[in-house]
């Protein structure tokens, strides 16, 4: 049972493809990024670009283990779309004079989550990735990209993100539909087995990388000026849409991710934030030489417009 027709959605996805060369990167407007905005925006764009690649790596894993041919093909396209989003964001950074080398470095928390995804994502059950991805897409679509469009006046940025947000909306539609399917017609025993995977040692390593990353990103966007209520609204979207049906609410991973989202957004929740903030500080102190190597697939990233789909 799917809440959307996945065959029709796949056809729509195929017919809404775009390329970086569809955008005029030399059009007027780059001077609208102010000197005050520039340094914070540079860090924000680098993080945003790397989060797109976290999504791409997860979609790559999902394309190998999705339960139907339609979903496998859809996730393979979503993987390519997330890479294209990262390339578009790098092209904006190049336009604004923010690229010092070929590729901006990911922050330490992102380095750890990328390493975990590279090592373990292909071993994770489909239903876990299927719940985490809509949460990240909601944060991207509903908070980070909205903030960018509210604060940056460059029309080329708006043109790029109109295309990116169209893709993200389709990712979300499929993600929530799949999350509902995972809770459909399952026995209590089957649901309990799904929830029990939370103690898998490989997954625990991922959680130890994921929790400080979300806390750090939350605090970074608040420092940049995103009103907290906009962040709460974006996170509430996950709860509202993911839990709109009984099937969605029965998915234990919807409940687990939703619980974490509510805890992460509420800074007054000291029992959650004190230990996670400590993890953020510990991550910040990891020496550069002790961090995992940046994986080779990052060299697929480019700030150059390419005409290929």
Your description of this structure?
The structure is a single chain. With 309 residues, this protein is mostly helical. The chain has a domain of 192 residues. The chain has twelve helices and no strands. α1 packs parallel to α3, α2 runs antiparallel to α3 and α9 packs antiparallel against α11. The mean pLDDT is 82.
Brief summary:
By secondary structure, the protein is an all-alpha fold. It has a domain at 108-299. Helices cover 70% and strands 0% of the residues.
End-to-end distance, in Å? 31 Å
Please count the beta strands (DSSP E, at least 2 residues each). 0
Shape call: globular
The whole-number mean of residue pLDDT values reads 82
What string, H for helix and E for strand, traces the elements in order? HHHHHHHHHHHH
Regions with pLDDT < 50 over 5+ consecutive residues? none
Largest sheet: none
Question: Layout of helices and strands, plus pairs?
Answer:
Layout lengths: L5 H10 L21 H29 L3 H27 L12 H13 L5 H26 L3 H29 L4 H9 L4 H24 L3 H15 L3 H5 L1 H14 L4 H15 L25
Task: Quickly list its features.
309 residues; 0% strand; globular
């Amino acid at each position: 049972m799917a809440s959307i027709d996945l065959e029709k959605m796949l056809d729509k996805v195929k017919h809404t493809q775009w390329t970086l060369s569809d955008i005029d990167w030399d059009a007027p407007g780059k001077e609208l990024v102010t000197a005050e905005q520039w340094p914070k925006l540079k860090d924000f764009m680098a993080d945003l670009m790397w989060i797109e690649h976290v999504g791409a790596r997860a979609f790559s894993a999902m394309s190998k283990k999705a339960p139907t041919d339609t979903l496998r093909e859809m996730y393979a396209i979503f993987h390519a779309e997330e890479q294209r989003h990262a390339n578009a964001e790098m092209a904006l950074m190049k336009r604004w004079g923010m690229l010092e080398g070929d590729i901006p470095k990911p922050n330490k928390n992102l380095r750890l989550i990328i390493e975990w995804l590279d090592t373990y994502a292909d071993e994770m059950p489909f239903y876990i990735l299927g719940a985490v991805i809509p949460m990240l897409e909601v944060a991207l679509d509903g908070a980070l990209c909205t903030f960018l469009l509210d604060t940056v006046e460059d029309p080329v940025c708006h043109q790029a993100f109109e295309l990116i947000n169209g893709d993200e909306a389709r990712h979300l539609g499929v993600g929530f539909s799949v999350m509902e399917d995972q809770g459909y017609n399952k026995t209590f025993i089957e649901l309990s087995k799904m929830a029990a995977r939370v103690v898998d040692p490989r997954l625990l390593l991922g959680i130890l990388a994921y929790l400080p990353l979300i806390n750090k990103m939350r605090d970074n966007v608040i420092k940049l000026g995103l009103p907290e209520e906009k962040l709460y609204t974006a996170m509430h979207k996950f709860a509202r849409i993911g839990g709109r049906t009984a099937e969605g609410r029965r998915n234990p991973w919807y409940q687990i991710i939703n619980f974490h989202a509510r805890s992460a957004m509420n800074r007054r929740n000291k029992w959650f934030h004190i230990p996670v903030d400590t993890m953020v500080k510990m991550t910040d102190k990891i020496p550069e030489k002790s961090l995992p190597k940046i994986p080779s697939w990052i060299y697929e990233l480019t700030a150059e417009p390419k005409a290929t789909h």
